[in-house]
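seq as requested:
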Amino acid sequence: MMKKASTKAINLKMMFFTLTVGSISFTPVCADLVRANDIVAPQVIYDTDSRVESRLYKDEKFRELRKAVAIRVQDYRLEKRNDGSGLVDFSKITLEEMAPDMCTEERFKQQYSLGNCTGFIVDEKTLVTAGHCMFSEVDCESYKWAFGFEDNTEVLKEENVYSCKKIISQSFEYSETKVSDYAVIELDRPVKGIKPLKMRKFGRPLIGTNLVVIGHPMGLPLKTADGAKVSSLNEKEREDIFGSLKLRKNYLEANLDTYGGNSGSPVFNKRTGKVEGILIQGYEDFEWDEKEQCERSITLKGGLFNSYEKIMRINKIPALK
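struct tokens:
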């Protein structure tokens, strides 16, 4: 059974709850930085941390695809300027300020942490994210979706900030026989100047297929991570092979380097550039280092039989058929 996150990380104020499906326990990867009673959400680093600034990623194809990825932001953290400039200011809080218990060597601590989920567009007005990022119309009304939040961003463009008009379709189900975690929403207006992402329509990728994920780990500016592969059953799943295979009808697993806040991130086939699915849950982010008295990122040995990041298959979402 996977460990519970340490309450020492409470300054992150991220949603954390554990579900048990058969013999497998896990945590959905929604990170809600505004709920004071919440603690750290999951995800983990496999082998070495492959996250890089999305605008600097080596493959031009994915530098272009990043433009279709947005961060979910609480409405109160954004303020439109009244000078006709078309700019939107945001409250500038660094990850270190949000999580002062993180160890000194943790990466990206000096960058701003702005939001708490990731989404991406699949046509000019349709955005897809994880179902646990958009439970109800209250979430639809309370959050904005901002494109172009990068490591060098000090102000957002109003034209890149959108509201949720309505929830088209939503599912959040973790049971003995089914995993389904997605939300499809309509934005308040067409997204201009950004190409929607292309998706796999049929079938599923083979074990060993190379993957790339783009998103906002811990609400940070866009990060791209590669080096991951579609995996076989992990140790916990092999305890109930039949049940695990039934559950895998709707999702893939992979050794992606992601954190809470990556919920809803598009996971791409590295070769085709098409979206294979939505990141929905995984292992824990941090563990408490008693010696150093700080929170340290958990690192696992990667491999085709040691992966815990779940990816909702994009072609299993009825509203996108």
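The first strand starts at residue 19 and ends at 21.
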